[in-house]
Amino acid sequence: MPTILFTNNDISIEVAEGTSILEAALDNGVNLNSDCDSNGICGSCLVWIDDGMDSLSKVYPEEEDLLLQLDNYISDKSRLSCQAYVHGDIVVTIPQ
Question: Where are the chain's structural domains?
Fold first, then answer.
């Protein structure tokens, strides 16, 4: 099973493959916003992927368009946690 390490609070979570980062966070008490109920339209669930970007589902154009509009976007590091599905181990930081 893939593992997600949330660096903000040093929590490591094993998840079923195909679980979204947001779902894993919320199911395990990690504080992560989602103002649009996981529809990928608000950007409030943005996270930075410190390691394992290749272990996530691909970025679709709609997600990329929204990411580019966000102030805390970092190229090649940012994902919407509601749209990023885990397929291997990753390390995640939640911007403050």
Answer: 3-93
Mean pLDDT of the chain: 96
What pLDDT score was predicted for residue 96? 86
Read off the amino acid at residue 76.
Answer: D
**pLDDT above 70 as % of the chain:** 100
What is the total residue count of the chain?
96
Of 14, 3, 16, 10, the C-alpha closest to 94 is 10
CATH superfamily of 3-93: Beta-grasp domain (3.10.20.30)
Please identify which residue in the block is written with the tokens 């099973």: 1
Radius of gyration of the CA atoms of the chain, in A = 12
